[in-house]
Please model this.
Amino acid sequence: MSNPGAVIAILLACGLTAVAASQPATSRVSAVPEGGIPVTDEETRRACGSCHATDDKHIMTRISHRRASPENWELTLRRMMSLNNVNLAPEAARRILKYLSNQHGLAPEEARPAMFDAERRLIEYSYKADADVQQLCSTCHSMGRVLNERRTREEWSLLLAMHRYYYPLIDGSSGGFRRSGGGGGSANAQARRSAARQEEGGERRPPDNRQPFERAGDHLADAFPLRSEAWTTWSAAMRAPRLDGRWTLVGHQLGKGRVFGEVVIAPDPDSPDSFVTRGQ
Model:
C-alpha cells in the first residue's frame, strides 16, 4: 500500500477504543522510583492513580517509565479492565489512549521498523541484533510488539516477571525463560549457541550462566531504553499532524486484487489533532 494508506492505518490505530480506570487518585511518594516521564494529563492520573503511585512531579509508577505504540498501550489498557476491574467510558478511554500514545509514545524513527505490526502485515521478520531474544519472544508473539516498547531497565525486568506470573509454563517450555537441568530444551540450546559463538570468535570469557530471561532483559534494556536521542528530538518539536485533504488510496486485497479509492480527511473543529475520515 502507498504511504497515504499507511498514514491512514496509523490514524485509525490511534483512534481505537481502549479501557482504563475511573477511580480517585492517591499519592504514595515513597513508592515512586526516581526519573521517568511526568504524566501531565489529569484524567490519566485520576484513572490510573488508585494503583499507580504519583509524586509531586507527576511521576507515576510503571506508566512514567515506559513508552509504547498506540497498539501496545491499548493492549495494556484492555488488560487493566479485564484483570483489574477497571471501568471507563469509551470516550474517556480514547482520550487516555491518545494522551499516552502522544506523550508516552514513540518517535517516528523508533516506530518505523515495527510498522509491519501496526499494519498487520504478514512478513518473515528476523530480529538480527540477538537471535536468543528473537527465539524467546517470538515463540508467543510478533517481535513487532517488542520493537514497539521503550522501558527503563527495571521496567523490562518487571515486564518479564509479569510474563512468568501470567504464563508460568513458559519457564520450562520450548523457548523457555529458564534452563531446566541438563535437558535439551530451547533455553539450553541458547546457552550452547552462546558458548559456540565465543569459541568461534576465539573469545576467552567466563561462561554466561544467566538464565535466558535475564540475558534478554539486559539486552532489551540496552537496545530499547526509555530515553533516546530520537525521542528527545521528536518530543521537543512535536506538533499536530497535517493530514487534512483528499488522499488517493492504492492497495491490494486478498482474493480481490488491486484496490483503488479516495479518502477525505477533515480536522475535528473541537480538537486540532483529531480528524474525521470518510472514503469510497
